[in-house]
């Protein structure tokens, strides 16, 4: 799947899904196992499934850079919504946000 629209909400459940994005302020939920997401546009929030990974871009003030995120590494948990800060750091969204947390059953496909 490919997306070029700003402010899009993308959700895929298929195991092994591949998504590319160039739109800004995108919300992404990848609940399929071993799915991959790559974005050259800004991502407002993202959720990975079991074994999922993402390459997310941010601008460091001089150039565009990418951060690679892997479920199961560095505290990244399947089904938990995260955001990329303006400094290129990954942090979980607060529990009091309007965004829903996926259950483990939502994150295993395959």
Kindly summarize this structure in a few lines.
The chain is mainly β. The protein has one helix at 104-107; strands spanning 2-3, 9-12, 18-21, 26-30, 36-39, 43-47, 53-59, 64-70, 82-84, 90-92. The radius of gyration is 13 Å and the shape is globular.
Give the SSE map.
Elements lengths: L1 E2 L5 E4 L5 E4 L4 E5 L5 E4 L3 E5 L5 E7 L4 E7 L11 E3 L5 E3 L11 H4 L3
Parallel strand pairs: 1-3, 2-4, 3-5, 4-6, 5-7
Antiparallel strand pairs: 7-8, 9-10
- Radius of gyration, whole Å: 13 Å
Ends: how far apart? 18 Å
The amount of beta strand, in percent, is 35-45%
Indicate the mean pLDDT. Answer: 86
Strand pairing plus helix content: what structural class? Answer: mainly beta
The DSSP helix count reads: 1
Query: How do the strands of the widest beta sheet line up side by side?
Result: 1-3-5-7-8
Runs with pLDDT <50, length 5+? 101-110
Topology order in helix (H) and strand (E) letters: EEEEEEEEEEH
Shape, principal axes of CA atoms: globular
Biggest sheet statistics? 5 strands, mixed
Number of strands: 10
Helical content class: under 10%
Structure description:
The two termini are 18 Å apart. Mean pLDDT is 86; it is low at 101-110. The protein has one helix spanning 104-107, and strands at 2-3, 9-12, 18-21, 26-30, 36-39, 43-47, 53-59, 64-70, 82-84, 90-92. With 110 residues, the chain is mainly β. A hairpin with a 4-residue loop joins strand 7 (53-59) and strand 8. A 5-stranded mixed β-sheet has the order 1-3-5-7-8, with no helix packed on it. Strands 2-4-6 form a 3-stranded parallel β-sheet, with no helix packed on it. A two-stranded antiparallel sheet has the order 9-10.
């Amino acid at each position: 799947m490919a997306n070029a629209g700003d402010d899009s909400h993308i959700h895929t459940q298929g195991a092994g899904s591949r998504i590319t994005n160039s739109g800004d302020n995108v919300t992404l939920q990848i609940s399929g196992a071993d799915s991959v997401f790559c974005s050259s546009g800004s991502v407002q929030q993202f959720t990975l499934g079991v074994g999922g990974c993402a390459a997310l871009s941010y601008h460091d003030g001089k150039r565009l850079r990418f951060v690679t995120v892997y479920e199961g590494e560095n505290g990244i948990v399947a089904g938990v919504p995260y955001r990329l800060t303006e400094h290129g750091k990954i942090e979980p969204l607060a529990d009091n946000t309007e965004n829903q947390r996926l259950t483990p059953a939502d994150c295993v496909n395959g």
